[in-house]
Amino acid sequence: MNGQFDFLVIGDDEPSLAAAAAAAKAHARVALLTTGDRKKRASPASPAIANFVWRRLDLQDYDLTLEPVSARVTLLKEGAPVATYASARETADSLAEKGSPDHLLWRDFIEEMTVLGAAPVYAPKGYDKPGAPGVKAFAALLSDPAHLEQAARLFGSCAGILDDYFSDDRLRAHLSAHALAAGGRGDREAGSAQALTAFLDPDSWRVRAPKGGAALRAVLEQVCQDAGVETTQKKPVDAAANGKFTNITFDGDDKIKVKHIFFATPASARQWGVGEGAHADFTVRFKLNDKVDAPLGDDDAIFQVIDDGADIQAARDAALQGKLCDRMPVEFEFTGNGEVIARSAYLPAAFFEDGEWRAWTGQDRQAAASIIRERLSSRMPGFATHIRRTETELSAPPSGVSPFAHCGRVIIQPHRHNAISAAVKLIDQVVAGDD
Amino acid sequence: MTNPLDLNSENKSGNRIEGGIDAVVIGAGADGLAASAYLGKAGLRTVLVGAGPELGGRIAAREIAPGVTGIDGEHLITVLDPDVISELDLYRYGVEFAARRLDTTYFFENGGVLRFDGDLTQAALLNLDDDSDREALEAFMGDVLETAAFLRPAFHGGGYGGAASSQQRALEKAVNQAPPEMAARLQRYLFATADEVLRARFDDGQLRTLLLAETSFRSAAAPHEPFSFMSLLRRYAGEAAGLQGAAAYPKGGAVSVIDALRRAAQGAKVDMRAGAPVKSILIEGDRVAGVVMADGGQLRAPIVIAAIDAAHAFGEMIGPGVLDIGLQRVLTARKAEIASARMQIILKGVAQDEATRKNMMRRLVYAPSPEALSKAFMDARAGHVPERVMVEAIFPTALDEGAALDKRQVMSVMAHPLPFDEAPDDDRREAIRSAILDSIEMFAAGFSGRIEVEDLRLVNDDAAAAGASVAAYAAKPDVLQQWALASAVTGSPRIRGFYFCGPEAQIGAGLSCAAGRTAAKAALRVYKKGAE
Fold first, then answer.
1. CB distance B485–A142 less than 8 Å?
2. pLDDT value at residue A129
3. Which residue of B159, B227, B480 is in closest CB contact with A145?
4. Residues of chain A with CATH 3.50.50.60
5. Domain with CATH 3.30.190 in chain A
6. Following DSSP, what letter does each residue of B285-297 receive, concatenated?
7. Cα A71 to Cα A88: distance, rounded to the nearest angstrom
8. Which phi and psi angles does A259 have, rounded to 5°?
9. Nearest residue of A to residue B491, measured between CA atoms
């Protein structure tokens, strides 16, 4: 691959593919860098696709059907599972049935969170993106107490908001777990409230392809191809700023010039050693011998395992301190082909031992996988005996200097529950800004 | 039991109504004194009422050992509003600096030491081994000092009745017209975590460690949280003795600033009344009408400035019935988690050599490693006393000739972060005491053996002395939350003639008086408009 591009999109998850396709459809020249080692295997549920993304990518022309996951379930250490559903009414009814004192508040809560989440977002959308609207919005923000209050709540803590609404500890723990687990945040730290409002956005409800249907990733790869995205799997070795462009050299001496380097998720950026590097994502795929009964008998749901609400901040703190936390929140789901995919974002990016930071080792992976297996076994007795094979995937910053460390024009989409729509929106903004 | 109908009770001012007053200022701390001096100077007949037996609030002189006076509250001047100094003529009223632009010596966990010039623009001239570090520091200090100065108006706080103050309008205009470089910088810094910014600039060296410490000192925002970098901009937006980002020691300690403010208020013919607690603020229709004293008397005035904590001012004196929901939510949503502590230590002996003597004339900072600092924040937030804390130490007896003692030294220490306690028990005090002493031992090995007296002062002690709610003296959250709080307490009550300049109106820690000035100016603007 050689030549000049508007974007180099790096990553092969759904948000990266969608962003690359969207930019190419807007007549930008797009190169896509994938790792290429992704085997054919079942995908976990992905964020929903907003209507505007369907239209932007003409997804109706492809054979794509998606089904929403049935429920979000939290398996606490004690008591019955807590579940919420895509429909506010269903959730309120279920809470009422379980005797939660907060069922009357649910719909108001969802409404108010929608308003709060729709507030103008003042945070910069990407790193070092010139001319972004952040500064003007900031000026307006400072002069309006109502805006300020809203911004302070939105960028305050998740626990702060939940304490304000609900008295039911279990419901609060459930919401924090599902809202924060994907980004590995703590419920008491500043900025976590935004993840809560984003989680409650309808576009954040996760979806997956029905059994036998085309996988979303495969469809998006096709869309990219049809839109003229050029794909490479060669490893970039150097990136150097050159006026408005960045010169990127790949293994095997391919060279391209790009205007923007674009990461659609923090996880894909992290693998290249850029962006926020405070924690790692760790995924374990358990291939099973035979069928395991899902909690609540619902194998379409997404499950969180935490002992109680305090686990979330404790696990975050441990990750920031470079430690494994044996009470880390774990999210898991069943796939169609007899697998359980479990993941946690509460792992350290690197380990801090004896006053030194060190990178992940094989033993650390084993230790992390075994904690996750234990967490699942504790909620599904006998789970471990059904495991045939275990595969792990780690998204942690590599050791050594990132090839992108010193080039300015890197755009990284922060963690979003509606990662696909957010990535498309962001790349659209950059395309518009270039005109 | 007193009989309410007994007209011969001891109550002196009992049901007396006092009129002919233009303004009442509640609270005799630094901001109350400054606000009343401004009003008095403008010719308003102003009454300042303080609840305690003395004027001055939490910054006060106190005998910490027989014959040795310590200063509670603050031990350095870093953010004192230069406009207050010049407009109230504080130099004429007695503010004098015994030591200005204090150099800082930083001590690190690994035994490393680094000295910063008191003039931060000179900091980059440091004798650093690594050229790239020096260049990085020079560029960074340039960026940060310029950005901090640019944002200075934003740190004065105060919305006042929804109408943006002239300062805010000026800031808005400035931000909107910021040159592209400044705009890009603002955008990078405003929402960033300190960790992120400093890591990108300095990798893993001592510079990152010391700047992380400066950033999070006295703040409740941990350096890995969003907006935490703003804390450093806030700190470096301040001025001491005419130098941005510097620290100065006034002759007689911080209490001398309070004394000067009191003299300025006196000079402005402010009627100052100590031992005069206020029970409630009178509101008639949509405007303030004066205050009701605890003894039943009334002071009627068209302007009331509350320079006390928000819980007292809004919760008790105004009452929740009048407040809008936004303000109530902001006031109840606050949960204090982190606080700083003061310790004054009398040490036996004198400096034996010139190097020690020189070091005692500096500001000494113990900067734990970034990992230890994060952990300290996590521990404190979880309600535990961290093993190691940041320490800022100065020697008033060495800095201020007037304070020198015979064969003894006073070391004044501020430590951070510590868990916030409404009412700490003896075990907690002991744990804090030993965490502070252990942290000092990290850079002054063996110093514990020279301790003659130590005096630990926690926020609840300060609050008790000033008659304030303890939470008002907790460490402040990130700057965005502070802006929201400041704007809510100064802007949303929508009671005409009422202004607020308590601790919640101030952005950041330190003796500033900017909130008092802003409140008084807002009051004067409206007063003059009414008089025309």
1. no
2. 37
3. B159
4. 3-67+208-273+407-434
5. 279-348+350-395
6. TTEEEEEEETTS-
7. 12
8. -80, -45
9. A145
Read off the pLDDT of each residue in B480-489 and give the average, rounded to a whole number. 86
Question: Pick from A4, A7, A45, A2: which is nearest to A261 by CA?
Answer: A7
CATH code of the domain occupying A3-67+208-273+407-434: 3.50.50.60
Contact yes or no for A178/A82 (Cβ under 8 A): no
User: What is the C-alpha to C-alpha distance for residues B178 and B172, in angstroms, rounded to an integer?
Assistant: 10
DSSP, residue by residue, B190-221: HT--HHHHHHHHHTTSHHHHHHHHHHHTTBSS
Would you state the structure tokens that stand for residue A222, as one six-digit string?
């096709």
Q: Looking at beta carbons, which residues of chain B come within 8 Å of A189?
A: 222, 224-225
Regions of chain A where pLDDT drops below 70: 36-40, 119-140, 143, 276, 408, 434-435
The strand ranges marked E within A148-254 are 206-208, 230-232, 236-242, 245-250
Residues 6+ apart with CB under 8 A from B178: A135, B150, B186
Task: Judge whether B76 and B245 are in contact, CB under 8 Å.
Answer: no
Separation in Å, CA of B225 to nearest CA in chain A: 6
Q: What letter would DSSP give residue A326?
A: T
The per-residue pLDDT for B192 is 83
Which architecture characterizes domain B94-162+172-245+335-466 according to CATH?
Alpha-Beta Complex (3.90)
- Does domain B17-58+85-92+253-334+470-531 fall under CATH 1.10.3720.10? My reply is no
- Answer whether A411's CB lies under 8 Å from A262's CB: yes
Separation between Cα atoms, residue A264 and residue A285, nearest integer Å: 23
How many CA within 13 A on the CB side of residue B375? 15
Q: DSSP assignment of B26-82, as one string? A: E--SHHHHHHHHHHHHTT--EEEE-SSSSSSTT--EEEEETTEEEE-S-SSBSS--H
**Nearest CB partner across the interface for B175, out of A122, A138, A190:** A138
Residues 6+ apart with CB under 8 A from B446: none
Q: Which CATH architecture has domain A279-348+350-395?
A: 2-Layer Sandwich (3.30)
In chain B, the percentage of residues whose pLDDT exceeds 70 is 94
pTM: 0.88
Closest CA–CA distance from residue B349 to any residue of chain A (Å): 36
